[in-house]
Amino acid sequence: MAANTKAPEAIHLEDYKTPAYLVDQVQLTFQLEPSATLVRSKLQMSRNLDRTEPEPLRLDGNSMELISVVLDGKTLSGDNYQLDAEGVTIFAVPEKFCLEIETKIDPAGNTSLEGLYQSSGNFCTQCEAHGFRKITFYPDRPDVMAKFRVRIEAEKKYPVLLSNGNLIAEGELENGHHYAEWEDPFPKPSYLFALVAGDLVCIEDSYKTRSGRDVLLQIFVEERNKDFCDHAMLSLKKSMKWDEDVFDLEYDLDRYMIVAVDDFNMGAMENKGLNVFNSKYVLAHPETATDADYLGVESVIAHEYFHNWTGNRVTCRDWFQLSLKEGLTVYRDQQFSADMNSAAVCRIDDVRILRQHQFPEDAGPMAHPVRPASYVEINNFYTMTVYNKGAEVIRMMRTLLGEEKFVDGVKLYLKRHDGDAATCDDFVRAMEAAGQRDLSQFKLWYSQAGTPQVLIRSHYDEQAKSLRLDMVQHCPPTPEAEQKQPFQIPLAVGLLAADGSDIPLQLEGEDSAGATTRVLELCEKEQSFTFIGLKEQPILSPLRGFSAPVRLKADFSDDELAFRMAHDADSFNRWEAGQTLALKELLRMLSDLEEGRQFVLSPKFICAWRHALEDRQADMSLLTQLLTLPSEQYLSDQLEECNPQAVREVRDRARWQLGSECQAALMERYQECADDGEYSLDPQAVGRRSLRNFCLTLLMELHDQRMTDLCLEQYYKSQNMTDRLAAFAVMVDNPAQDRLAVINDFYQRWQEHPLLIDKWFSVQAMSHQPQVFAEVELLLRHPAFSMSNPNRFRSLVGAFTQNLGAFHRGDGAGYRFLADQVLLLDQKNPQVAARMAGPFTRWKRLEPHRRELMKAELVRMQAAELSKDLYEIVSKSLS
Ligand code: B3K
Ligand code: ZN
């Protein structure tokens, strides 16, 4: 851990300067040894002509031993350069020169999983954002792009030796060693460098591009995983085809390699031609992966593949521009998933994630714009804001320009900047050119943090047969700015007639009515829009498809919401109306609980809900979404001062009530949805499983032995992990006698499968049983628990923090537990530790008692020696 005795300094976008020196060509030689790997780097460099004055050469580097520095063939003595904790400065260099540097590193001892490290004894790298500087000294910034040539030498017990690009040579060496040489013809920044070496097997396929080139596709995994790669391979081929069809983008190398490793800080990494993946996003088999896991694999494979253009061919000038590649690539993977699966369900999922995680981030101490203006540790900025809100910003541009011009804009951006490092402004400029419109106000979405609120009031004029919508926008203050300028907000709206049909829309000043969904552009702080030619008072369907990432406030009556839930032509808004209705109901129950009144769902709500449950025409995936109550996180986010345990109590009560009052209907649907044989991923089958398991969880709320028997039968007999895991989770959530037997059975069955043991830990950590905290403390001492594996740590400690009812115990023990674990992990893996500290950033939104308890833990953490990563989270939370 890089402990900090003095406060680390922030880096600011406004200080950006072009690099003083450029690298034309890199030659790397690795002699791999677990604890003492030698790295020789030969750099052809030149002074950047943008910079007039000659200056010393600064190279980034840390956590390694510098062995030698040779400039144009001459070994430099210590007087010629200065080494410090962050890098080396070479005082004088000519305009063009060759620099050779030798370093020694310790991959086996590298627990941060950045740079070169080992996973299951194999070597692999993670260089984004600042990992390359742990391998060799280098100008480790994305606007320095160079051609790489890599030679890897290792013992033959590491038979597979991989790096980016094309294999140009391989052969034998003395003493049981061998080597491979790779060359990447595309200049790239250091963060896209990758090396993998180990005992891996390879699954191969091929893809013919639209122009007729054959691309070799390879997935490398450990031998035990070789039967689990088919879905990943299929997903890769679908992604390649989709990018050709939608954006005319073809793959550019002859080989595309994916490597799955068990120890990885995040999901995956888009290194040029050699992606490294968390095995969670590669491995899938019906018996071991759920439907959600399958979708996760498909979308992450697509995401990393899409980076080949949006990220690699055109990269970011600096890390403040991170959303340029991430927001755009998330948008692209979301569109891909929507095209491959049910588009409406995908959109609902995207919005659910945004509201559950990004909205709270935007309302807390770590709030930052999509293009942040400063950071202490860039790894803390791989956030929901940069990724998911960034994707919403791209989506809004598509809404404003229309699909065709938007696609033209993306193509123009790629053409203008191919082979270069670009900025978010460059992207918007291409959109302006393709769309023939000025987006200067729109760009505030990149520079202002916070979630805007939009208040809509509608006034129907019986005489004039018109409907006026008065809108007001307001964005609450965030750490970087008290006052905000009005955003340009595209609001897609529709109007429903009394029979539920969509009305063709005509705005004041227009000659005739047109489409039934209209995008209104709210640009002022206050603005009105009037629809005319309305025979009767319509029902407003605002923000269709969630056309902007805003909090909408409008006074809808329960009847209006129920009507839209049944009739809205926009399926997203049908779901949204149901959620709003349920939210009103749950918030009312919450205040009843707080005031000491009886808290129950209203008969009217239950009746509407049962009615929806019995709709046999509805798409089953959509129906499950519609019936699912708003999450505890979303509910908590609505409250100024939240007691998460009260939220849990109310939501659990509502679920119990739905289970008991709709028992017969739930049972019927559960039985109707029984599986009919072979596992299939088609949307009908996925929908059927989702509805069936949803019914099971509500029925199990009744704590009735007959239901438990049903659940046990499903657990023991299921042939697929979706059904088995659903039954397992409800059993663990249940006080039934068989609970322990099932927990043991799951472990015995799957102990050889790390991804399933992760599920085993997280299901227990998420349990609503009162003894869960004690169980989590015990699990921490289970032999299968390990702090060094990020997936395992997340599956126990991370999952527990998402168990709001348990984590937010009134005695603060949950907070103490997390602080202890995070402090321990910070010694090994600062990046994951900082991420795990996320729940602490929400302390100001808690009710006073819990707020004080959480704050005390933050203060305790602040007193410890922290990594830069964790320091930033803790200090910003307290400021
Ligand atoms: N670009 C990587 C994320 C790197 C995170 C570094 N802390 C994966 C992705 O977004 O595709
Ligand atoms: Zn990405």
From TrEMBL:
Catalytic reaction(s) noted: Release of an N-terminal amino acid, Xaa-|-Yaa- from a peptide, amide or arylamide. Xaa is preferably Ala, but may be most amino acids including Pro (slow action). When a terminal hydrophobic residue is followed by a prolyl residue, the two may be released as an intact Xaa-Pro dipeptide
Protein name: Aminopeptidase N
Enzyme class: hydrolase
Residues of the Peptidase M1 alanyl aminopeptidase Ig-like fold domain: 450-554
Family: Belongs to the peptidase M1 family.
Cross-referenced Pfam families: DUF3458 (PF11940), DUF3458_C (PF17432), Peptidase_M1 (PF01433), Peptidase_M1_N (PF17900)
Function comment: Aminopeptidase N is involved in the degradation of intracellular peptides generated by protein breakdown during normal growth as well as in response to nutrient starvation.
Keywords: Aminopeptidase, Hydrolase, Metal-binding, Metalloprotease, Protease, Zinc
Any one GO BP annotation for this protein: proteolysis
Residues of the Peptidase M1 membrane alanine aminopeptidase domain: 235-442
Source species: Malonomonas rubra DSM 5091
Domain named Peptidase M1 alanyl aminopeptidase C-terminal: residues: 558-878
GO MF terms, alphabetically ordered: alanyl aminopeptidase activity; metallopeptidase activity; zinc ion binding
Residues in Aminopeptidase N-like N-terminal domain copies: 70-192
NCBIfam families: pepN_proteo (TIGR02414)
Listed cofactors: Zn(2+)
EC number: 3.4.11.2
InterPro entries, alphabetized: Aminopeptidase_N-like_N, Aminopeptidase_N-like_N_sf, PepN_Ig-like_sf, Peptidase_M1, Peptidase_M1_dom, Peptidase_M1_pepN, Peptidase_M1_pepN_C, Peptidase_M1_pepN_C_sf
PANTHER family: PUROMYCIN-SENSITIVE AMINOPEPTIDASE
